[in-house]
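Researcher: Batch entry, complex prediction.
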Amino acid sequence: MKWAGRSIYKGYAVGRALVSHMDISFFGGVDPDTGVVVERGHDLEGQSISGTVLVFPTGKGSTVGSYTLYRLKSNGKAPVAIVNTECETITAVGCVISEIPCVDHIPIEQIHSGMHLRVLGGEGWVENIQTAVDQNGASP
Amino acid sequence: MLGGKSGQAIQKAMEILVALGEMYGAACMLPVTSVQIAGVSYDNLGEAGLAWLDAMAVGGGKVRTLTTLNPAGMDITNWQTLGISPDFAVSQMRVIDAFARMGVLTTCTCTPYLTGNLPHFGEHIAWAESSAVCYANSVIGARTNREGGPSALVAALTGRTPAYGYHLDKQRQPGVTIEVSARLQTTDEFGALGKAIGLKLNGVNAKPVCYICGIPHADLEQLKTFCASIATYVGAAMFHMEGITPEASTHKPPEWTIPITQADLEASHQLMNDAMPDAVDFVSLGCPHLSIREIAHLAELLNGHRVKKEFWITTARPTKCMADQMGYTAIIEASGAKFAVDTCCVVAPIKGRFKVLLTDSAKACYYASSKNRFKTVLRPFDDVIAEALR
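Model: Structure tokens for the complex:
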């Protein structure tokens, strides 16, 4: 399965999807030292976004959130790529300054946490590269 | 600029502007005449944010237009009196130094329009600081999107911003009429109106620009606090106020109408009171930063009295200089109240230091509660002072 969206920031990444159905505020909502979501009541509360292809509808909250992404990247705790329904300024600027591939206009309801994804930021593609073996529960 | 001939900092800056322009479908870049940058407190930036600013300064970044700065995490000269740690102070000064090296005027205020950064009607600008964005678009009639710290900085370094959003007539059209029958007199009531509108528009995606009717008069201080509140509770970048803001007369009130009654206003106000006045251990006025008129009034009320609680007055350094010259500072400091210049209770690192905040600002209540986990008591300006003296 391959989805064509819009390029927000270039770059290539492969990783496991971590899907949220709620908007994310990086400032205050994600611990910049650990990558763990700390917003109370968030559907990713307690989970780490570090090393994932982070999939969520859109960003929200303080514009300082762009720097939070930069802090996460500097601390080695950033997502490897970001996929949105509709990107906005905080996430877009955060991805450019942190050099995180980012794609939006993707039907994220078709993506599930744990899917093995390939993201081509510059082309605006997101691809599910899960193998048949993989889907049967064996390790990839 | 994008090719790198103007240096690394400018190249990265243009890369950000192009990404934003493409994302929002901008047809071109617009020259900007004024910039206000947010994201100054070290409490919010951390070491990585500072590293990025430093890289932009080292990479040759220099502002190309009038550029001022939002409040920092401390008073630059008087931080020890306010209980700020020396480690924090050193880091905070490194942030301010990085901005200064890029030619940013380190005003450290959320009210640039009171201290020399005052665009005129119709000018394209790039401002961060949500309350000032709302003031610029609505009260002045200048044109800006709600920029963030980084996007405002890159607009300053290139002198440009992509032409989308509130730079275009289309986005400035009102989408809902707010019919206010409640009576508004004090700044806390204007703040409560912002939250009341936020409650009514809760759940509405893509919040419409409000066309507000029924307010016969609003002065600078009332508009300043209302802008901060509607930006905080609605996420609004602008509003029109019939008979008061300059673009209101160019629009008709939209058909979709939401009433705000006295009961709505009181309910909203009550939500910002979750503690009793007896429990207050921290008093703060100046969100947004106090005007010279408010400081003069404050001095009048504090003259010859002693405050009984930790009391911070937050304002811009140029405003404080005027207060010094007029003798207001001496009167206020003799009462035991402290000036916290260059900073405010939203961005200072005060989490855990206090339990209950008393203020006249609806915006301050929001951040005290969410960021610092304080309880809050919202009162009119004069009552805040009376309570602090009790």
